[in-house]
């Protein structure tokens, strides 16, 4: 007797499963909304032929919108602070939320009720995140304008307030560099400023093609990606001679035989590294050509 009853219950359960409401799903587009933006919430279901009684929409436990086809009007909005339902684009299947602010991030649900059998109800929930992007690109700075091999290049990068905090990565010549320090600083209205520091030892190998590039990328999921770059040119000779201005007239012809002069004399200058061997030929600007000549003469 007991067994027969169990089988009966199971059959009833399976039977109900076939004829009743099923597969209530909530699709959110996008799931990460930039503050001030819009999200579409689409509630799909398989009614199995049963008439729809109602669709209720919730944020957390609070109902903010209801669709009841048998009633007039068929839609109702329950004023909830910060929720702006676009009535023109909301119906029994979807709700469009506009002007979403940070505080609205949370779980959203749609609850579907079928008229038969006996008001079967299913609910589906999705988390919607609302984020604030940094208001400007990251700021990258280094402690010097030029670096000699052996020196330490110290740089830091700061990304303006965001929520959640932006991810910062510093690259040296396309290679990510491990941050020596990463910090978050809270600012007004719960946003966070991100800052990273790096320090790397400068080597000649860091100047392929005569240039060392430091870049800082600020990213937030796949929604935001901005960068700042600093370029450092091949290290200069050291110490740099003081600037001496030549009288304009003679200098042109003087400079025209300069390369020959350099080729001939440079090997003779002992104990000075002009950067030719280590870094390949470095093209001096006019001013430093003059300076070089004057320091040789
Ligand atoms: C809805 O549509 C009406 C008429 O088409 C329009 O006047 C109103 O501004 C629209 N409301 C929104 C929130 O788009
Ligand atoms: C609900 O509105 C959306 C967009 O406004 C539309 O694509 C969809 O067909 C509508 N669905 C129903 C059941 O009216
Ligand atoms: C959203 O729902 C998930 C799963 O039920 C829960 O773990 C989480 O705490 C909820 N988040 C919020 C903000 O209520
Ligand atoms: C960032 O680096 C610059 C240049 O070295 C320096 O002036 C500044 O103080 C640094 N900022 C912080 C917060 O460390
Ligand atoms: C930052 O990076 C971590 C690790 O890759 C990732 O889990 C997180 O979602 C990222 N945060 C943002 C805001 O992009």
Key traits:
297 residues, Immunoglobulin-like, six-stranded mixed β-sheet, 5 helices, elongated, binds 2-acetamido-2-deoxy-beta-D-glucopyranose
What report would you give on this structure?
- The protein has 297 residues and is an alpha+beta fold.
- It has 3 domains: 130 residues, Immunoglobulins (Immunoglobulin-like); 95 residues, Immunoglobulin-like (Sandwich); 47 residues, no CATH class.
- The protein contains 5 helices and 18 strands.
- The chain has a 6-stranded mixed beta sheet with strand order 2-10-9-4-5-6, with no helix packed on it.
- Strand 15 and strand 16 form a beta hairpin.
- The N and C termini lie far apart (117 Å).
- The C terminus is likely disordered.
- Bound molecules: 2-acetamido-2-deoxy-beta-D-glucopyranose (5 copies).
Global geometry: elongated
Number of domains: 3
What is the name of the CATH topology of the largest domain? Answer: Immunoglobulin-like
Residues in helix, %: 10-25%
In round numbers, the mean pLDDT is: 80
Strand content: 35-45%
Radius of gyration: 34 Å
Strand order of the largest sheet: 2-10-9-4-5-6
Number of helices: 5
Order of helices and strands: HEEEEEEEEEEEEEEEEEEHHHH
CATH superfamily of the largest domain: Immunoglobulins
Instruction: Give the biggest beta sheet.
Output: 6 strands, mixed
Report how far the terminal alpha carbons are from each other.
117 Å
Secondary-structure class: alpha+beta
Low-confidence stretches: 7-18, 239-297
The CATH architecture of the largest domain would be Sandwich
The count of DSSP E runs of length 2 or more, i.e. the number of strands, is 18
User: Which ligands occur here?
Assistant: 2-acetamido-2-deoxy-beta-D-glucopyranose
CATH class of the largest domain: Mainly Beta
